[in-house]
Amino acid sequence: MTEADQTATYPAPLRHFVAELAKAATLHGDDEAVMLDTCRALMLDLVKTDDWLPAYCARPDASYYQQHLLYGDPLDRFSIVSFVWGPGQTTPIHDHTVWGVIGMLRGSERDERFELDADGMPVPTGEVSTLKPGDVGVVSPTIGDIHRVSNAYEDQVSISIHAYGGNIGRISRHVYQPDGTVKAFVSGYSSALTPNLWARGA
Ligand code: FE
User: Fold this and answer.
1) Distance, CA 110 to ligand 1 centroid (Å)?
2) Which of 54, 103, 151, 202 has the fewest CB atoms below 10 angstroms from its CB?
3) Count of CB atoms within 10 A of residue 78's CB?
4) What are the tens digits of pLDDT across the range 57-67?
5) Is residue 90 helix, strand or coil?
6) pLDDT confidence of residue 178
7) How far is the CA of 5 from the centre of ligand 1 (A)?
8) Based on the structure, what is the number of domains in the chain?
9) 19 alpha carbon to ligand 1 midpoint, in Å?
10) Prediction pTM value
11) 5 vs 24: which has the higher pLDDT
12) pLDDT value at 201 more than 80
């Protein structure tokens, strides 16, 4: 990457988001409701503009949706990821086990909610939302943590920004498979490149 690229992609809004979330985590890290409220407000601000995400964090893959790490708190209090959906790509039904805030940056995604029945099987709650650029959604074990997310478009890439109340690349959580089995998984990050929050810039 050239210096010109770095200046062009200086992610000032992301830097602000990280700084404010770190302050909130220091003051209210144990209070999920406050963290969700604070992060939601910050996310609404972050996805209001779409000129800050470096191109290498917006890359799709033909086979799998991508999770590019944008920032990982050194104390693992939160992490921020760009989700890049290729046309028609979808997640399995899954949970998070920590709070999460999703902000739509480009394109559109469909979010279908589930809850577990008495046998531990996910059943649709009937709540389905379609996020458009600027929209923000939330998940957490206390307000509803199980969903399936898909690119709403069959013919274009969609991108959403996710913040989680922990290092999502290290947290063991669950996928609920069509055959009724529940599998523990840890989601990996797609690349080792992260935005340079320390670069000279605006
Ligand atoms: Fe999710």
Assistant:
1) 11
2) 202
3) 26
4) 999 999 999 99
5) strand
6) 84
7) 31
8) 1
9) 24
10) 0.93
11) 24
12) no
Distance 169 CA to ligand 1 centre (A): 13
Q: Rounded to 5 degrees, what are φ and ψ at 68?
A: -90, 125
Whether residue 197 is contained in a domain is answered as: no
Higher pLDDT, 189 or 2: 189
Which DSSP string do the residues of 129-158 spell out, in sequence order? EEE-TT-EEEEBTTTB-EEEEEES-SSS-E
Domain with 31, as residue range(s), is 3-185
Return phi, psi of residue 102, to 5°.
-115, 125
Backbone angle region of 76, left / alpha / beta, with phi > 0 → left and psi within -120 to 50 → alpha: left
Domain membership of residue 194 (yes or no) is no
Q: How far, CA to CA in Å, does 178 sit from each of 122, 149, 165?
A: 10, 15, 28
CATH number (domain holding residue 176): 2.60.120.10
Question: Rg for the chain (alpha carbons), in Å?
Answer: 17
- Kindly give the distance from the C-alpha atom of residue 147 to the centroid of ligand 1, in angstroms, as a whole number: 6
Question: How open is the CA angle 164-167-172, to the nearest 5 degrees?
Answer: 100
Structure tokens that stand for 71 in this block = 């920032």
Please tell me the predicted confidence (pLDDT) of residue 202.
61
Residue 193 lies in a domain: no
